[in-house]
Write the structure tokens for this entry.
Amino acid sequence: MSDTTDILNIVSELNNEENPQRRLKLILSLVFTSIFFLVLKFLFLSDILPYPSYLKEIEKSGIVDQVFVNFFVVISSFLCAFFLVWVLFYVFKYFYKVFLHLQDYSWNKELGLEDWEFQGNIVVEDKGKVIHIIQSDLGLILKNKEWKDCEMTFKFKIPKKPVLSPEDEQENQLRRGFGVIYRAKNLGEYYMLKIDINGYHPHVRHVLWENNGPILKTTLTIENLDEWINAKFLLINNHLQVEIGQDEFSFLIPTHSNISKDRKTNTAIENIENLPYAKIPFRNQGSVGFRSAFFEEVYIKDLKIKHILCF
């Protein structure tokens, strides 16, 4: 009965159109299981097919046909092989994520933009030493890299006058600021800290935007424009410590977002009183990057990410 239930569950998952990634994993698992099963069968013949003693007794009694017994043995063996492949897949996935978490990263001019996913205008300047981010609504993040606990250091410069954007009405580009992405699932889902003249604003971009700031006023002024400012983001056990120039503060990154989409109908919730709470699935690890949108411009250099192994 359990074998039949397992088969029905597999078929149900394969027909699940809401999660195409899981569907692909199951299809690949079935393919690898079939290959694995057939190879073992031809190499070891009967050794791959368990034949319990109670089945021998049933076969001798003549209650059921031998064909049924053999079919039961084959199906049971196949499901065992499928389970083994599925376990090996998750073991490999676990160690792959551990490997990703243990990587250090340092951006240099030889890498250019090949390590980045981005939207908008991203330009490498000053003989390849500086990344100039110009009106990138989604931002840019390092692709195929994840960290759980890490230290991110860099220098940034907000220009007095934007190069390719209209000048601020009060001629103070710090009013626009920019964003630092410190944990990202992709370009549409991430945690970000917005830096501008009003202070530091923790954001969550979980389909829609949520602004949880300002959390602290800033000592940066118009006099700091066109100056390189040191920044450090230390993230340990989901606790973020930030140092920007002379400013220092820390906070625990949130577990939930109170703004999300109805994923079934793919339509935005318009009534603010009925906004659902959504658990943030990418809280425990992710990539890093920057965002500069709506006439914002910023320069980034000396970016380094150092993994921190915590137990």
